Amino acid sequence: MLTKRTCGVLLHPTSLPGHGGIGSLGEEARRFVDLLSAMGMSFWQMLPLTPPGCGNSPYSAYSAFAGNPLLIDCDQLVSEGDLPNDLIHSTFDENRVDFAAVAQSKLGLLHRAATSFFAAGRTERIEDFWDFCNTTPWLHDYALFMAIKQRFKGISWRKWPAEIALRTHEAYEKLSIELGPEIGVQKYQQWQFFRQWQALRGYADRQGVRLFGDLPLFVAYDSADVWCRRDLFLLDHNGQPTSVAGVPPDYFSTTGQLWGNPLYNWDAMKQQGYGWWIDRFRHLFGMFDVVRIDHFRGFEAAWHVPAGEKTAERGTWVAGPDRGFFETITATLGKLPIIVEDLGVITPAVEELRDHCGYPGMKILQFAFDSDPGNPYLPHNHVKNCVVYTGTHDNNTTLGWGHDLSPPKIRAVMEYIGCKEKDFVEGMLRMALMSVANTVIVPFQDLLGLPSSARMNIPGTASGNWGWRFSWSMIPRSLGPSVRTIVGRYGRLRSRTQQIA
After folding, report:
1. What is the pLDDT of residues 335-351, one digit of tens each?
2. Which of 81, 405, 420, 445 is the most buried (most CB within 10 A)?
3. pLDDT of residue 496
4. Is 354 within 8 Å of 401 (Cβ atoms)?
């Protein structure tokens, strides 16, 4: 699958159109799959689908396993009889996600739907629900975690009463009973999410489109994973991190990026045969055909910043599990179709780990013009075993990036591409598709030639991110055929009979 000339589109489902204030896994997602198929695309890449926490970031989630309930399509709940039709209405901005307003509205609808579902009594659907509960190992811990968070108005688990924060057996058993109704609501949401997800995946598969997921290296401190498995993280006896994750000063920030995630106790994980990670990979590959590992370099060494620092400048590199980790994953699960984010401070040791595993790395065209002809992101330096992007969710749109370049720099880019400035975005897309690389992924914003206002994320900023949405009125009727033509011109057209390999 990653050894053939292919192309795909990067778009997070929250950016899909729809009347609920946020994209969903319903009709609009299937319509987008149809568009990808018409364009001859092989992949739909998206960001993590886990329930976002701090800053609405999909990279800071309440669980490494659960699905984001805000993506559930309420129209399907109406068709199944869990919601009355007159509750579904549109009062939201069609161009941006107002996460607070959407959460208040949608979570209320999901609570009502769950209540209706359980009131229906013993049905074929309730049997399916209980089967999901009985075969999903992480579900009860997550549902209990979220039910407790709701009781305490959303505050971090470290601020809960001590016996609950430290998850004593007595508190766990008592709350599992006491919060039973809300736990049921949380489980209903996950059941619906994964039912709808698998239906969408089946639809995409029938259209010949493979789904491409994202695995963040780190998990959020305020998550069910850390609350339930403190032994797997570098925490003190009170559950506080001793150091947190980030990256040193780089292209995106002069003071580095202080992510604040807890760091892993790799020794403890190794002693347990990396079981938590094996479960995580198995879970993701039950959802996706390909997975991108975010911040891959952290498996070789991670930037440890002492807890309490205000920036990421005063950190140190601490060795990770390296080859042994991936050898264990491969021995257990087989060879997996993985690509890795190998951006930022990449050392020969990180490259050696990537190449030892045989994983394709990433080449970002927006990074290609910062030095000399030896720049590894320039297309003439690409290799087949890599994935080319015009930009990622962390970059400006290609049009916005070009507008921010100095006149000498934009002239140099135009001379390299061989096009006029008015054709800049098209030239960048053509340059990506011409690459010798097996795989090309294009942000949907770049296919539409959109400006900086369509940017998804600005690293190092805490608010205002992740909210961009498109509308169908922005899509030219000729987009499918025109993109299909250029994708075919460079040998990347997906065949209906293309097989996973």
Report:
1. 999 999 999 889 999 99
2. 445
3. 54
4. no
Our CA dihedral for 261, 267, 268, 273, rounded to 10 degrees, sits at: 110
What is the rounded CA–CA span in Å between residue 224 and residue 138? 9
Task: Please write the tens of the pLDDT for every residue from 57-88.
Answer: 999 999 999 999 999 999 999 999 999 988 76
- State the catalytic residues: 294, 341, 394
The strand pair at 439-443 and 361-364 is best described as unpaired
Measure CA of the first residue to CA of the last residue in the chain; give whole Å: 5
**C-alpha–C-alpha distance, residues 26 and 15, integer Å:** 13
Contact 439, 8 (CB under 8 A): yes
pTM for the model: 0.96
Distance (Å, rounded) from C-alpha 182 to C-alpha 188?
10
DSSP string, 106-153: HHHHHHHHHHHHHHT-S-HHHHHHHHHHHT-TTHHHHHHHHHHHHHTT
Chain segment 9-31, per-residue pLDDT in tens: 999 999 999 989 999 999 999 99
